[in-house]
Every structure is written in C-alpha cells, then in structure tokens.
Amino acid sequence: MNTAKVCRETGFIMPAEWESHEAIWLAWPYDPTTFPDRIPKVEATYVQIIKEIHENEVVNLFVIDGSTKKKVLTMLNDASINLDRVNIWVYDYADVWFRDYGPIFVKNPQHELVMIHWDFNSWGDKYETLLKDKEIPEVINRELKLTCFKPGIVLEGGSIDVNGKGTLLTTEQCLLNSNRNPDLKKIGIEQYLKDYLGVTHIIWLKRGILGDDTDGHIDDLARFVNPTTVVCAFEDNSEDADYDALKENYDLLVDSVDQDGEPLKIVKLPMPKVESDDGFRLPASYTNFYIGNSKVLVPVFDHPNDERALAILQELFPTRKVVGICCKDLVYGFGTIHCISQQQPISV
Hints:
Blueprint: H1 3-9, E1 21-27, H2 39-53, E2 58-63, H3 66-78, E3 86-90, H4 98-101, E4 104-107, E5 113-116, H5 122-125, H6 136-144, E6 147-149, E7 161-162, E8 167-171, H7 172-175, H8 186-197, E9 201-205, E10 222-226, E11 229-233, H9 243-254, E12 265-269, E13 274-275, E14 281-282, E15 290-291, E16 295-300, H10 306-316, E17 321-326, H11 337-340, E18 342-345
Parallel strand pairs: 1-2, 2-3, 5-6, 8-9, 11-12, 16-17
Antiparallel strand pairs: 1-18, 4-5, 7-8, 10-11, 13-14, 15-16
Helix pairs in contact: 1-8
C-alpha cells in the first residue's frame, strides 16, 4: 500500500494547534543530566502546566516507573488537580521532549484521526541515550489503535508549524541538515510534508537561535496564531548574537504569502536573553508557547520583556486566556512548553 497516497488522497491534514484538542501529551521530568540540580523546580513547573491545562483537555502523562507515578499523583492531588482528568502511562522513556518524538496527528474532513510516526534520531544523533524514545508513538497506539502511517524519514514535531489551511513553516537549518535525511533534497522533503501532513505551501526560514541544539526548530522562531498571522521572534539589539538570524527570518516572512497567495500579517515578539549559571546562552523564546483549548501557556523567564510578550499574545488570542509559566529552570534542558508537549486533536 502506498501510505502517502492514501493519506494525501483521502483529505488528511494536520490541524492548526488552536483547533480543538482531546488531550495533551507530556512526559514527567526525572533526568538530572537534562535538568542539572533543578529537578524539583522543573517538577513544580510541570504541576503548574498540568493545573492550567487539565480543565479543558485531558492530560496524558508518561512517568518512568511506579514509584514516580505515586509521587506524581500526590503532587497533583496536593495542587487540587482533578485526577480524573489525568491519565498516567508508566513506561521506560528517556526524556521529556514529546513534541519531537511523539506522534503527529492528522484528520480528514470526517474528523477521523490518523497517527503519523516519523523517525526520531535525537536531533541528528546528538544523544545516543535518547534514541529509544522513537518507539513512543507505537507505545501510545497500542491503546489508541489508530491507523498509523510511517513515512520512514526523520522529522521532529518542533521543526514544523501549520496554519491548518495548507501552509507550513520550517527552517532550512533543520530539515535540510545532513544529519537528518542526507539522501533527500529540498524537493523530496517538501513532497513528504505534502503527502503526510496535507500541506500545499511551505515557507522556508533560514536558521535558529543561539543555544538551540535542535538545529533551528521553528517553534523557537515563528508560529501561526491564526490562519493569516505569524508571530516572529525578533531581537531589537543589533549587537546581540541572535540579531542577524532573526532579522533574516523576519524579512523572509514579510515577503511570504499563504497557500492562496495572500500576504501574511507578521507580528514581532521580543526576545528574552537567558543564560545558565555559568554564562552559557540558553535557547529561551516566547514563541515556544502551547495553544490549549481555552488557554495559551507562554514561557516566561523573569525577564523585562515578559509582560510585553504576554500582552502581544493576549491581543492575538482574544478568546483564550494567555498564562505565563516561569520556565527559567525548564529551559536548562534546551526547550520549554511547546517542546515538552504534543496535542491530540478531537476525533469523531
């Protein structure tokens, strides 16, 4: 069976993130290598995220073992979280970056849900111990029992963003990197995106921010907030290390159009500058937000630009409450809210 043809010709498309969700998928943090000296602080961040989101979408939460499950349930209960809204999955996963190794869900006009299981090679074989997380979609589908397509190429969820109408954002630094799919050229990558995600138009930005070990994931750079509007990370200080890359991406977006050839509205989001205790630049960005059913969870960093970023996003999401989640500890793992989450759209 030509699964690409089946997916494409039956009208399946990746929904925009603001479309209705059935659930959010997360994996509980436990590895001190990822979050040195700050696991309890990151756990507290997770509790806050779950508390904010669980009222309007089910939380599917992976935990590493039975003792962790017991601890997590106690923490969630102490935070007055309705445990009927949280499903715990006990499995031996490696790390928390669900956006990248988890499944991507697509729907057809009849709202039938299909799972896409892309290959995951830990961002270009950077972290061998994390490779086992490539099996997570299969673990999930033992329960969901959805039709599952396997394109057979490497792709991480954080490397793409869609408007649900046919347009996809990505970067050349990531998808065209020789450490992902060295035998594929741009035209080949585009065909896979069109075949399996239902998109018809692809906007290629260039490169990502300093400290990003994913090779330029789009969710730290630019995100659709509605079918015709993109928020774009922008650095005002021309002396900053991220200035040139972000300005280049912004200029490309200003000249871009959607799937119908119409210009896009581009809104600048300021950048926070966040460094580790030893002065290493961390990949902090306000575009790494999660669009839930009733709330938009936005990473903030105790930075002067926090309030400005929240105000911009609140204006762009008038029907949702924009909530800042302090992620100055979470970002030590080189990602924040969008990186750790994956949405499951509502099905039939």
